[in-house]
Amino acid sequence: MNSFRLCIILFAVSFFGFSQDSTTGYTLDEAIAFALENNYSAINAERDITDAQKQKWETIATGLPQITADINYQNQLKQPVSLIPAEFFGGEPGEFQPIVFGQAQQASATATVRQQIFDGSYIVGVQATKAFLSYSRNNKEKTQQEVRKAVVEAYGNVLLAKESLAILKKDLEAVKNTLYETEKLYENGLTEEESVQQLQITYSRLESQLKNAERLEKITLQMLNLTMGLPIEAATQLKENLNDLAQNNVDLNVIDAPFSVENNVDYKLVNNLNEQRFFELKLAKSRALPTLNAFANYGTAAFSDTFTFFDGDQQWFDSSILGFDLSIPIFSSLKRSASTQRAKIALEKAKTQLTETQERIRLQLEKAKSEYLLAIEQYATTQKNLNLAERIEQKNQIKYKEGIASSFELRQAQTQLYTAQQEYLQSMVDVINTKTELEVITNN
Fold first, then answer.
1. Do residues 375 and 434 lie in contact, with contact meaning Cβ atoms separated by under 8 Å?
2. Of 137, 231, 303, 410, which sits most exposed with the smallest number of CB within 10 A?
3. What are the residues whose beta carbons fall under 8 Å from the beta carbon of 211, sequence distance 6 or more?
4. What is the rounded average pLDDT of the residues 134-147?
5. Residues 240 and 158: beta-carbon distance below 8 Å
6. pTM of the model
7. Check whether domain 24-63+119-289+334-442 has CATH 2.40.50.100, yes or no
8. What's the angle, vertex CA 138, arms to CA 132 and CA 139, rounded to 5?
9. At a CB cut-off of 8 Å and minimum separation 6, what does 28 contact?
């Protein structure tokens, strides 16, 4: 009995746990926060920072002591022969005696320590790694902005698809009822066949649009899942509706918010390019400086006619060296000079690009403000137009049923209403997206 109860409890826990995991609801801010942690590009941007930190240490480590060990074993299967004048051994002058020097097998082990004392390129390289790390961090910030913008657009598109689907279902049901009534009137000879045909055209068009809206709802949700870093088939739920989200994004204070071009991520990235070009120029100049390194090694070697190097009585001969090497560049046929001049040109180009970026960002800011204001104005206008279109369509419905308005006039009013509905929904999405674009430029 206790085992049975335990199984029931475990089943319930697993069931409810699965239900919670399989269907998760998100507000827009929650979706953005989730995407910043789980979006594929955001994950790789974080890895790029770790990679830059490792690269920084890799560069620093080249100037720290380096220790290497070498083990060597040789077996001269055919030892080289040297000819010595025979008279050294009591022979006749002019004759030579072949002789072999050394023993056939030898083994050696050496440990070497190297230390860089001065190298101008090393100093510049360490400085440049800091700039590269800064670039990686700014690039991550840029990626986060792109992820945030993509989530806002995807979230808005899902809401737009859901709202469109709901409206189309409502419109289709209304047209279906009107078509049914009109068919009955036609069967009783109280209206013309054209009236039925006009409504059939409207019904067929709405039915096609409804099927497309159902497909779009699924696709837009999959796009949102992909942007957030979820499996595309995840049953993600949205906690906000399009109208409330649009109203929350109507904020004219963002138009007058203080702006500093130095906060813009694109500016930061181009500024990183200038730093990189600056260090490249320093690197080119540093190649004219001497380099100084120190080294010390300790080794031991043994010789034998047979392989006896692991025997306890094998004799080993120690050796040790301490030294310095100094390299002084003297003449490169103006190669270093040309390299330095090219680095100067690259730096000047980067400065010009920075100036251009500043002006382009200012232009983007003014354009984004204008588009945001236009989106707010269109939002208010389409809302009024929708109210008018609904009233016009309702009046034409009444007139049509009373026989005052024709089916053509009713169809025109319905088409106008459907257009106003879609324009109103799109205007809400535009408010959300244009505000996001403005916030990306100002980096707020």
1. yes
2. 231
3. none
4. 96
5. no
6. 0.82
7. no
8. 85
9. 151, 152, 155, 240, 245
